[in-house]
Amino acid sequence: MENILEFFYPNQLINVLLIIINFVLLWVIYFRKYYGTIKLICFFINLAVLASALVYPPSSYLILGLMLILLFPFRNNNPKILYQTPKAVFEGGGIRRGLTPPETAGLLGKTPALVITLVIMQMLKKGFLEFGKKPLSFLIPRSMQPKETSLNYVDREKSRRENAQKLNAVLTPYEEMVFEYFEQKKGLSLNEMNFDFFPTLFSDYLNWRIGGYDIPLSKDYYEKIVNRSHIEIRSEGNLINNKSEVIERNIFWILLSTDFEQTINKEFSDFFPSWFETDSKNKERRDFIKEYKDLVLNVQASLSDDLGIIEISENINATSENLLSDIAKATRSG
């Protein structure tokens, strides 16, 4: 033992190396495993061990290091996880993906009549609406009607969403607006209605949806989708040899393009979706383009002449701040 001490004590290089090794061992073994008070105690012990090297031979702090290693071997290997404060993260600053055709129509500055028409057609396709007895009148199908008629607005909304889930569909907030209005105007034709309430409410909703994203980039992204939609359905229809299925799946995007009429008449002249049947007794050849245009014109007639387009807020940062404020309130961290 004395020979070992005589070897270690005068050799300063070994002394320094052992100090470094001891420091690394303590750091790896304790600082990365222990938390709170234990971590602080280990830190001061480490300082004491290093300081002892200035007075005592290296064997003293090596022994102390071994004692520390033997002292804590039975510590729980699954330390309690420290409480993590809730964090709200939202994607922003880029392209706003995932917009529906009606939302895209609003983003691209299409007329309110076109937006409302797409909403109505989308609800027909989902099974949320059906044609009434009057021309261009709409009814709520039994599958979407609440079991109780005396429900308040919140309970009606909940009932609709549950019924929509049974149809394997999602009831969007803007569809909810139209749904509520049609329930109040049961059996009326479009020319007997007034949709002036919709553009403002839809603008508020759309600005909330795209808040925090790059509006010009998003517009360019969806313009490209719309512009190439007719090309893609033509190639896909030829590929799977089922043009009707392809166009019905993409019909709303096609209707947003400027040359939709040419595309449908040239490539899909016999197309007529079953959910757009306004008169099931009429077995004659139906003209989808004509009936679609009639629907748009009737919706247009239900809007005031001085009504503007769907407005998109240019103050993206303000919209983002509003969204962050809502998130902060919801998580009680703001």
Explained architecture:
The protein is mainly alpha-helical and 334 residues long. It has two domains: 2-71; 101-331, no CATH class. Helices cover 58% and strands 1% of the residues. It contains 15 helices and two strands. Strands 1-2 form a two-stranded antiparallel sheet. The longest helix has 20 residues, at 12-31. The model has no long low-confidence stretch (mean pLDDT 77).
Brief summary of the model shown:
The protein is an all-alpha fold and 334 residues long.
Shape: elongated
Mean pLDDT: 77
Largest sheet, spatial ordering of strands? 1-2
Instruction: Provide the number of structural domains.
Output: 2
- Count of alpha and pi helical runs: 15
Number of strands: 2
The rounded Rg comes to: 35 Å
Cα distance, first to last residue? 65 Å
Q: Return the string of H and E elements.
A: HHHHHHEEHHHHHHHHH
Unreliable stretches (pLDDT < 50, length at least 5) are none
Fraction of helical residues:
55-70%
Strand content: under 5%
Structural class: mainly alpha
Sheet with most strands = 2 strands, antiparallel
Key terms for this structure?
single chain, 334 residues, mainly alpha, 2 domains, two-stranded antiparallel sheet, 15 helices, elongated
Q: Which helices and strands appear, and what pairs or packs with what?
A:
Layout: H1 2-8, H2 12-31, H3 37-52, H4 58-71, H5 101-107, H6 112-126, E1 130-131, E2 138-139, H7 153-166, H8 173-184, H9 197-210, H10 215-227, H11 229-240, H12 243-255, H13 260-267, H14 288-301, H15 316-331
Antiparallel strand pairs: 1-2
Helix pairs in contact: 2-3, 2-4, 5-6, 6-14, 8-9, 11-12
